[in-house]
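Complex 193.
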Amino acid sequence: MIHQTNSLSAKMSQRDPRKLAAGFWATLVVLLTVVACEQRSTETPSAAAPAKTPEQQGKYIVLIGGCNDCHTGGYAESNGQNPPESEWLTGVPIGFRGPWGTSYASNLRLTVNEMTEDEWVNICRTRRVLPPMPWPSLNHMEEQDVRAVYRYIKSLGPKGVKTPPNVPPDQEPATPYFDFVPQHLERLQNLAP
Ligand code: HEC
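Predicted structure with heme C bound:
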């Protein structure tokens, strides 16, 4: 034990204080370089992920926002395999019928063609009309993203025809429709624990 302690203190005393100081400074330089690199990487996005154009960002939001599920015929039914992008968001003439009447997922390609970007922003951020359009979700979309969606849809160009006007609850629609009235609510009792 005594021998070990002696050899340790002997080693310590062998260390050149100048070498110790040089080691300290080298470590400090490495640390500062790491910190500087970290900061730079948070300031500018890395070259591996270049910034998206508004159109690319808009397409991304349309895809993850599920807009095609309702506004593009055949999209949900084919699990997004159809139709091609050139047909996207041209609206669906099959209504959604519920207590609110019958609503139709509009032809957004014509909508953006008929309004300015600012009008689109105003509608998306404030309108809250008929289900099943997820108006409450769209109202919360950040303005920059709403603008990107406009740019994307506009870049696709106008296409298709307008969807039929909404039908009041007490009237029979002249079109096919999905029935949004829940059936057999009494069966909920069977699920009770
Ligand atoms: C569950 C089905 C559904 C989904 C999903 C959906 N919509 Fe809709 N959308 C509708 C229906 C139905 C209407 C008509 C509602 C009304 O008249 O209030 C509508 C209307 C709209 C309108 C008004 C258009 C006009 O000309 O008046 C806009 C804008 C819109 N949707 C944007 C979007 C965007 C953007 C997304 C994706 C983030 C989306 N919708 C997702 C069903 C849907």
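Residues 65-67, 69-71, 96, 103-106, 108, 111, 123-124, 129-130, 132-134, 138, 149, 166 surround heme C (CB under 6 Å).
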